[in-house]
Amino acid sequence: MAREAVRCLNNAREILRQVPVEGDTYIDRKPVREAMRSAYLAVLEAINEALSRRGVAWKDLPKSVDAYRAVLQHQLAAGNGKLLRQFESLYDALYIAGYYRGLIYDRKLVRDALIAAHNFIEKVA
Predict the structure, then answer these.
(1) Which residues of the chain fall below pLDDT 70?
(2) Which of the listed CATH numbers 1.10.10.60, 3.40.190.10, 3.30.530.20, 1.20.120.330 matches domain 3-124?
């Protein structure tokens, strides 16, 4: 599996271990948001590492979410729309809802999002 991606995902898990929990809810949302950002970064790093293995130079790696979508559609997942749909779902859950808006703070939802990120990383790697 992609080393940097795994490192980012492990960072997300480590952040979450330190967040106080009441019932099934994380009490402090700020570190949860940071964990979700780190998990999203893990997804992007997995794509970057897959592209690097295919010979794409560091300076030519995607620089926007639209560029990542294009890469997934045309290079990494050619003919496999499922991988692109998984990326879209992870973008919405991890980045938009989890990090940007801070809407995900339920332990089960956070855990499910991290598992989905891990599965995506395994597929791309």
Answers:
(1) 1, 77-80
(2) 1.20.120.330
